[in-house]
Amino acid sequence: MEFIKIEDAFNKEGEKVAIRGWVYRKRGSNQRKFLIIRDSTDIIQCLVEKNQVDNQTWEAAEKITIESSCEITGTVKKDERAPTGYEITVETLKIVGLAEPFPITKDVSPEFLYDMRHLWLRSRRLTAIMKIRSEVFAAIDDYYRSHKFYEVAPPILTPTSCEGRLTLFEVKYYNKKMYLTQTWQLYAEVMIHSLEKIYCNSPAFRAEKSKTSRHLSEFYMSEMEAAWEGLDDIIKHGEELVSFIVQRVVERRSKELKILGQDVEKLRRIKPPFPRITYTEALEILKKDGLEVEWGKDLRTIEEDQLMKHFDKPLIVTNYPSKVKAFYMPDDPKNPGTVLCYDMLAPEGYGEIIGGSQRSNDIEEIKRKLKRDGETINKYQWYLDSRRYGAVPHAGFGLGVERVVSWICHLDNIKDAIPFPRTIKRAYP
Question: Going by C-beta distance under 8 Å and a sequence separation of 6 or more, which residues neighbour residue 115?
């Protein structure tokens, strides 16, 4: 027989089917065995009765262990007592790969699960998260392509900083010193002169000595850059993109959201427009809540979390102080001391999910800010050439994919939003 996926077996009531997968759970007696079999699509209960199968199948049912791979044939029937409402009455069971005793049991520590990440990825919870993660990437591609953006692959090894030297990972590059990319942005800014509207989904690296539940050292950024656009344009793109991602996940992955215990109806309400305030207005809100922040200080996790208690949709915060933002962000002539930028903060304490800005075309302003940040201007001459030869207004932003996945899935820790997390204390497996 031709093998089918478990989710397709639910539509075969009364029919004989062949499935293959791994043993998720096992229980029973000396007369019958209940096996919960999983594949990439779902789980299904399989009943092996000693007096209904041949000796070879019964011996396999007795021998098989948790996470053993197997092939099963049998008849599908409805059973409300089964985990997914269906059961296969087994006719044949073949062990493909007999598993050793599985090291992951109920009462293990979170750190042990991270040590066993290569095996824990098989769990229903992480499988659901990885499916949602995949859907997020698909939605990002569909959004940008529907808006006539071109996908561009940026270099991972770079000769300069873009987001500050303190978070650079240094790499030996033959007889030179290079760095793992913090962002594609400088390369994107020079490429909009040919393709105009571009995006990428690419790994980014930040050597942040942070141990919070929302920081990773290696993560994925979905970034965009567009010629002839300004701050308001990219705010609109950010609102539409985030809404598009959330609605796509709700539409196609509601089953996985329910496995994770997420409120699907709450996510359905994530639609533009999103509330918008300035950095200064954010400080006023925080002051009323008893959190006094000196103007000019960046918002920390504690301030962002407090601020988001007032909002149930993502919040757009504009006009941060110039001194806490990157050299490529232009000063706002209407708001002295601030730059034309925005952060998008997610509800429920998930922090910044988008950071973006208009880009400065003033070479002297860029040089002044590079000096402020302790950078060597000569290393950026190739970047400044984009201002010397046909500069145009342009803007862009970066979306942290794992932050978005964490928020959508309502995760306790961002480490579960990526298959193999890398942090200041974790580089294994």
Answer: 428, 429
Structural domain including 80 reads 6-97
Beginning with the edge strand found earlier in the chain, give each strand of the sheet holding 394-400 in spatial order. 150-151, 197-205, 218-227, 394-400, 351-358, 341-346, 315-318, 276-278
Give the sign of the dihedral formed by CA 380, CA 385, CA 388, CA 392: negative
Residues 419, 397: Cα–Cα separation, whole Å: 24
Q: For 228-265, write each residue's pLDDT tens digit.
A: 999 999 999 999 999 999 999 999 999 999 999 999 99
Q: What is the pLDDT of residues 81-113, one digit of tens each?
A: 999 999 999 999 999 999 999 999 999 999 999
Flag whether the pTM goes above 0.85: yes
Position 389 in a domain: yes
Number of domains into which the chain is organized:
2
107 belongs to a structural domain: no
- Same domain for 182 and 93, yes or no, is no
What's the CA gap between 240 and 121, in Å, rounded? 31
Q: Which residues contact 20 (CB under 8 A, 6 or more apart)?
A: 3, 39, 69, 70, 71, 72, 96
Q: Are 347 and 311 in contact (CB under 8 A)?
A: yes
